[in-house]
Amino acid sequence: MKKFLVIVLVAISVCAHTKAQSTYYFPVDSAHGIEAFSVKWYSGQLEAMKEPIIYNVVSGNEIYRFTWLRTFHHPVAIRVERSNNQFKLYWKMCSGAGGYAPGKLILDKQKTITVAEWNQFIARLIRAGFWNMATELKGILGNDGSQWILEGKNGDRYHVVDRWTPGSSTDYYKCCDYLLSLTDIKVSGQDKY
Predict the structure, then answer these.
(1) Are strands 157-164 and 146-154 parallel, antiparallel or unpaired?
(2) What pLDDT digit, counting tens, does each position of 122-167 carry?
(3) pLDDT in tens, 63-80
């Protein structure tokens, strides 16, 4: 009986581990261009932050999420949603590091934003050309730094853009940084990379 119980517990553990590893937050196909290694890494970070999967959600909401994974700093996810005429901002942070294990959820906040703040974000999104940007820029590699991942879901349309340490003068950086400015997360200049 004891042996049977051990086998059952091991089987449950293996199934739970397999299920956790099969939870991907991004489409696993070549059309979106994110490599399998990155999909697993980013998904593990977002799962630790208890974020929803948005690429396959069926709702009338317009949703955008900025995932900020700095190598040696806490991982951050900032999500903004429009539901009819209501605009909500959610932000989360884990205790680990974006380039390593995510750690535990240490920040989980939300607030209503104004239509003007929403429109300011959408204007920055348009200025960056988000919906037409390549998902990844091939050949841009670096040690350390950060990943700036921005997802958008509007109706049946989904897009994700992943950039390694974008320059602060780029419209993409400014779009993501605007979402950060709407939160109470304080980041010193040298830590905003």
Answers:
(1) antiparallel
(2) 999 999 999 999 998 876 666 789 999 999 999 999 999 999 999 9
(3) 999 999 999 999 999 999
Structure tokens at 55: 């690429």
Q: Per residue, what are the HEC states of the chain?
A: CHHHHHHHHHHHHHHHHHHHHCCCCCCCCCCCCCCHHHHHHHHHHHHHCCCCCCCCCCCCCEEEEEEEEECCCCCEEEEEEEECCEEEEEEEEECCCCCCCCCCEEEEEEEECCHHHHHHHHHHHHHHCHHHCCCCCCCCCCCCCEEEEEEEEECCEEEEEEEECCCCCCHHHHHHHHHHHCCCCCCCHHHCC
Instruction: Give this prediction's pTM.
Output: 0.86
